[in-house]
Amino acid sequence: MIEAPARDCPLCPRLVDYRSANQAANPGWHNAPVPSWGPVDAPLLVLGLAPGVRGANRTGRPFTGDYAGKLLYGTLLKFGQARGEFLEDPNDGLELTGCRIANAVRCVPPENRPTPAEIRTCNGYVKAELAGMPKLRAVLALGVVAHNALLRAKGIPASRFAFVHGAIHRLPDGLLLADSYHVSRYNTSTRRLTPAMFEAAVSALLARLASG
């Protein structure tokens, strides 16, 4: 089993306070560190930023319950990395088949902005994901925070591999690190990221994996 934070993880005081406030206001929500999801023997890890307050923090499943999941899961379904139907509900029967999903920070941060200290504190769980996936060959980083968190987990300076949407970096150990802008509502509504752009990034990465 891959190491994950306890439901009452105390490591980041600001996030604990925010989690507690959400629990008081919405006692029926998940309101805890959001676990990773998907098969541990998958060759691909999709690494996001952090749970959304009304998304994964509410439902307990990554990218479920807010707008960001629509583009992510729709694309994964289109490219055969999942099966079923995404209904923005953890009980919708959706199944990941070719990838696993995790976040760089497991607890919801205020205003969707974890601090550098919080990102560092949670990085041990990113390391655990990498170590616990025996067939891992690639990581799709959604945004610069996820990109840098992956590099930190691998002990690589962030300056060595710059985040560039659509780039695919081969790390010293052979792992592929692919970059995409985050699938957030802000990025898609401003068209910083379009569905075509995201699909192109995923398609290119899967083609690299298929070619060996």
How would you describe the overall organization of this protein?
With 212 residues, this protein is an alpha/beta fold. The chain has one domain (16-211): Uracil-DNA glycosylase-like domain (Uracil-DNA Glycosylase, subunit E), CATH 3.40.470. The chain has 8 helices and 7 strands. It has helices at residues 13-25, 56-59, 68-78, 116-121, 123-131, 144-153, 185-189, 195-211; strands at residues 44-48, 82-83, 95-96, 99-103, 138-142, 168-170, 176-180. A 5-stranded mixed β-sheet has the order 4-1-5-7-6, with helices on both faces. A hairpin with a 5-residue loop joins β6 and β7 (176-180). α3 crosses α8 (195-211) and α5 (123-131) packs across α6 (144-153). The two termini are 28 Å apart.
Q: In a nutshell, what does this entry contain?
A:
With 212 residues, the chain is an alpha/beta fold. It is built from eight helices and seven strands; from the N terminus they run αβααβββααβαββαα. The protein has one domain: Uracil-DNA glycosylase-like domain (Uracil-DNA Glycosylase, subunit E, 3-Layer(aba) Sandwich).
Intertermini distance: 28 Å
Question: Spans with pLDDT under 50 lasting ≥5 residues?
Answer: none
| Biggest sheet architecture | 5 strands, mixed
The CATH topology is what?
Answer: Uracil-DNA Glycosylase, subunit E
Give helix % range.
25-40%
Query: What is the CATH class name?
Result: Alpha Beta
Structural class: alpha/beta
Q: What is the CATH architecture term?
A: 3-Layer(aba) Sandwich
Give the overall pLDDT as a whole number.
97
